[in-house]
Amino acid sequence: MPVxxxxxxxxxxxxxxxxxxxxxxxxxxxxxxxxxxxxxPVELFLTxxxxxxxxxxDILTTRRAEPDSFVVQVDGEKVRDEGATRIEELSVTxxxxxxxxxxxxxxxxxxxxxxxxxxDRLCTVSRTVELGAPVATRIEP
Length: 141
What we know:
Elements: E1 9-15, E2 18-23, E3 28-32, H1 41-61, E4 69-81, E5 84-97, H2 102-122, H3 124-131
Antiparallel strand pairs: 1-2, 2-3, 4-5
């Protein structure tokens, strides 16, 4: 059975500066303006980039060995020019440790290739960011 290529989330305002996103499977994520400890949209953007590649790398490397630790950090610089803002200097840093032994060695050896495969082919999020995609906005009654 072919997978439906359409992706969608619905965002509802719950109070001043607070929102809830719901996906088609019923997953719920709350976010806001950052006035409290919630995630901001920019932090969710960074999370999407890191999360996408983390999933790819995790799937590929854990076929060899389960990691002792697996941490991904995503950084970017928010800049303002000509009255508009954007994020520049995006970077994704992996801090992954595998156990000693043959299986851990195999996972460590695969890690650079897994990261490259995610970046070059597998991660929909970072590939979309790098290639660019128009964003249409519209108002419905």
